[in-house]
From TrEMBL:
GO cellular component annotations of the record: mitochondrial inner membrane; mitochondrial matrix
GO MF entry, a single one: copper ion binding
PANTHER family, per the entry: CYTOCHROME C OXIDASE ASSEMBLY PROTEIN COX11, MITOCHONDRIAL-RELATED, CYTOCHROME C OXIDASE ASSEMBLY PROTEIN COX11-RELATED
Stated name of the protein: Cytochrome c oxidase assembly protein CtaG/Cox11
Entry-linked InterPro entries: CtaG/Cox11_dom_sf, Cyt_c_oxidase_assmbl_CtaG
Species of origin: Bondarzewia mesenterica
Topological type in the membrane: Single-pass membrane protein
Role according to the record: Exerts its effect at some terminal stage of cytochrome c oxidase synthesis, probably by being involved in the insertion of the copper B into subunit I.
Lineage, uppermost ranks: Eukaryota, Fungi, Dikarya, Basidiomycota, Agaricomycotina
Length: 247
């Protein structure tokens, strides 16, 4: 005779009710994560805006910005077009009044054939009794030559530190792409002016070096004087506050 042990039912699980405090805490954590992600994204966009804008100008020649870093540097393109008309490239040098340097081109001009590389030099001397960091902007005129004016090597947008009394030569290697011969707008172009402007450098809120000058002055040195610039974020925010109706 077998004796069966009665089976006991598993204990019933009591449903757990989430308290209002836990619910709000979870919602706040989610909101905090989304807000943090938006802030990080906004900071990243702000950080990348200027470099991306410069890359766009350098890639397209927009507003007189010479082209840099594109496929134009293929060896077969760096061949002078014999029989083509030579183009005279003039060199200009400017500097901010706040920069205690003497900055001059070593040559007034050179003449080049389309596709021909040319080496030019600028000279900079620190006339002060302290070390100074400078940073240069550039542009080329007339604007229509910019897509074809390519710089292989230059000193623009890079930190240039000169010790007290130091004098240095700054090389510039460039060429005018031979595609300029196919552009009707450049058919009668004989002269080009390449301008560099040196500013004293300062560090912005992100710790990066930038020209120590008003924004409109810096933009004008890059050939954007005739373009309407969008106001900075702080200016837009202040204007929005002024226009908002009183509470």
């Amino acid at each position: 005779m077998s004796t069966e042990v009665p089976r006991s039912d598993p204990p019933r699980q009591v449903p757990r009710y989430v308290s209002a405090r836990e619910m709000y805490a979870k919602r706040n954590r989610t909101l905090f994560m989304y807000t943090s992600a938006v802030i990080v994204l906004a900071v990243g966009v702000t950080y990348a805006a200027v470099p991306l804008y410069r890359m766009f100008c350098a890639a397209t020649g927009f507003a007189g910005t010479p082209v840099v870093g594109t496929g134009k540097f293929e060896p077969e393109r760096l061949v002078p077009v014999e029989g083509a008309k030579r183009i005279k490239v003039h060199f200009n040098a400017d500097k901010s009044d706040q920069l205690p340097w003497k900055f001059t081109p070593q040559q007034k001009f050179v003449t080049v054939l389309p596709g021909e590389t040319s080496l030019a030099f600028y000279k900079a001397r620190n006339t002060s009794s302290e070390d100074v960091i400078g940073i240069a902007t550039y542009n080329v005129t007339p604007d229509r030559i910019a897509p074809y004016f390519a710089k292989v090597e230059c000193f623009c947008f890079e930190e240039q530190k000169l010790l007290a009394g130091e004098e240095v030569d700054m090389p510039l290697l460039f060429f005018i792409d031979k595609d300029v011969l196919d552009d009707p707008a450049c058919r009668n172009l004989d002269d080009v002016v390449l301008s560099y402007t040196f500013f004293r450098a300062r560090r912005n809120a992100l710790g990066h070096l930038e020209p120590d000058a008003p924004e409109d002055v810096v933009q004008a040195s890059q050939g954007f004087a005739d373009y309407e610039l969008a106001p900075k974020a702080e200016v837009r925010n202040a204007a929005a506050v002024e226009k908002s109706p009183p509470a």
